[in-house]
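Before relying on records like the one below, remember that each one covers exactly one chain. Contacts with other chains, cofactors or solvent are not represented anywhere in the record.
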Amino acid sequence: MHTAQVAIRIDHPATGEPVDTEEELRQLLAWFRYEDAFRGQVRLDTLPTTPHQMGAGWVDAIVGGVSSGAAGALVASVIAWVERRRTRDKGGAVTIEFSTDDGKQLRLSCDSTTAAAELLDQVRTFFDDPNVGADE
């Protein structure tokens, strides 16, 4: 089983830039607390910004570490949460970024039209683990 760091943020629907979505991130974090695999593994944080990015000063991501086994559940949870958000007319995509100690990176973008199977295939390939998402 492999592990990776994960960062999850909500991007503005028009610009794709992170926006001040602290309350929504808090709701997503609360959603994750129902999953045993994430309890104590993820937290709210700020991500470094580039010189041209706005956003310094607010909580703008959920970060933590996940195993390849938990990665599939994380992606499925985000998709379920995005679907729930859609029913409340919230826009924007959720970006999930995985990175490993050896420098591998995977960036996924999930909105209400994203197919779970497509994202899980990308996560399986990234972790080189055919069992990712097998229980989803």
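The chain has three helices and five strands.
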